[in-house]
């Protein structure tokens, strides 16, 4: 089984989808001849031609809007937004159109499409190349929101997303593009949407994270283990639909929950998980639910290492719930 | 010519009518008659639906009064396989393509007869069987989608053209620019049909753009824009058909600007007397399309007052019967609220549905147990 990084897994997943299904087309800025600014679409234009790997004009609302039209007509478009931070001109197309076609047409018209975007900080990109805005999309009924943290999940979730019938926001943690490495099967496989991954089993504290915060939690769990604290790490993978069952079963076992995300704390998706645990598992809790998140500030440039949750902050929260 | 003044377009059309001394071919006469029937149908439907809205039987209505020729003339130019992305006032396209009046009325009533299950406010009908896509209310959003659909049609080697409607207000939107630009670059088989009715709610055309016309904007995107008298169904039909044929033949996009006038308010919720001179409306009424098409038919196709009166009666009857049929249908099942959010309901949705249905059952049960008179 070949070892590859998350970026390569995305590339391989896209190639596989394009080979097996003529309806799959890619569109976005610099994705063709340039192969994408990160290289996610490297070599695809050469293999599949400019008609199916479309270098678009610089227009996010146009990219998503036209992809919606392609999906309505019967294609399986995979638009790329170069950085999640640039998605806002397309916000209207995503929340008013892509998310609502099935519902508003009484099931007549659907948008099976996968909107890919590199997300999150940690690459010294400043405010406009670093945000994690998953909560905006999680708040819109009709959208599926996915964020893999491993190369295996990236390829398998992408395959599920492409073969599915719903519009998907597929967030790729850009900090892990090259940092996350792992074995990825050459053959096609799928990872189920709506099923969290238990990245590490433990019985004292439940850590819930997604994207680039998963390895941070795994490292913090390793450090806690040295102090005799046994942490379970849940990698959501799928933000919507949420695997409430796995989270609640874990909290029922550990009695303590720490939720970790990069996005600002207020209104972040951690608040939803916190509410879920409070509504359905409060009787198991030994300590208040803790959240470790980005601060309620815009994403900084120079001080990004202070802004982003790290093992020190996660470790402090773990100790907080243990010593409560 | 990519650009023509509205007066010029009107003259062209008038000249075309005058330059036909020989009797009409039966085929053309039948087409004109059918266009007139639909134009009149829309006018009478507007009156009926506005009446239903005033009586509280529907919540809202967006009339097309004064703009019927633009809708029917363009719809008549379509092939059945062509796709349509409508805006607010294009319900007539569905009727032209063969959908029953019940479809539009049921969508306004929003009960169990409604194909879109009461999910949208009135005047937002769609029907996949007639290739008329669903519209959101967000101005201009349908335009890049139409470009994408046209791209897909070409990629699949279909001989499909896409007709995307917009108003004059939408020409200011970001999505208009995105769509026009992409259509020009990709040279896809799309026709943008701007039904310029001079008013975007209360904002007149002159405050919308400093361009000499909407049509002229196409030039900057590298394709043809044509302006046509939108109250002349025959001229609209010719201009749209030529644009669609060009699109199907691989000639790329066209922007057709149909110059017309919104005789009513923006919708049943609007009072145009607050912002618009009565004199302007009176002047526009002299050019309105129902009388115009009728005059053309009388002159060229032997249309008589007797036939006209009979047609009006038939259409009124058809509409009244359709309203009765639709209103007889039952209310929507509250559980349908949760359908069609995703291909398959999520656990969260299933739980919310169960909670609601239990609550409804409990309320019903409590009512029965009380034995109280329900009113």
Question: How do you describe this structure in short?
Answer:
The complex is a heterodimer of chains A (324) and B (375). Chain A has 13 helices and 14 strands.
What would you note in describing this structure?
The complex is a heterodimer of chains A (324) and B (375). Helix content of chain A is 37%, strand content 20%. Chain A is an alpha/beta fold and 324 residues long. Chain A folds into 2 domains: 3-183, Rossmann fold (3-Layer(aba) Sandwich), CATH 3.40.50; 197-322, Rossmann fold (3-Layer(aba) Sandwich), CATH 3.40.50. In chain A, the strands form 4 sheets. Chain A has a 5-stranded mixed sheet, sandwiched between helices. Chain B is an alpha/beta fold and 375 residues long. Chain B folds into 2 domains: 6-328, 3-Layer(aba) Sandwich (Rossmann fold), CATH 3.40.50.970; 334-370. Chain B has a 5-stranded parallel sheet with strand order 1-2-3-7-6, sandwiched between helices. Mean pLDDT of chain B is 93; it is low at 1-17 and 369-375.
Task: Tell me the count of domains of chain A.
Answer: 2
CATH class of the largest domain in chain A: Alpha Beta
Helix content of chain B: 40-55%
> Could you give the order of the helices and strands of chain B?
HHHEHHHEHEEEHHEHEHHHH
Mass-distribution shape of chain B: globular
- CATH superfamily caption of the largest domain in chain A: Thiamin diphosphate (ThDP)-binding fold, Pyr/PP domains
> What's the total count of β strands of chain A?
14
Instruction: State mean pLDDT of chain B (0 to 100 scale).
Output: 93
Extract low-pLDDT stretches of chain B.
1-17, 369-375
Strand order of the largest sheet of chain B: 1-2-3-7-6
CATH topology of the largest domain in chain B: Rossmann fold
> Number of folding domains of chain B?
2
Largest sheet of chain A: 5 strands, mixed
Structural class of chain B: alpha/beta
Number of E strands of chain B: 7
- As a percent range, the share of helical residues of chain A equals 25-40%
Biggest interface in this structure? A-B, 49 and 47 residues
Q: Helix segment count of chain A?
A: 13
Largest sheet of chain B, if any?
5 strands, parallel
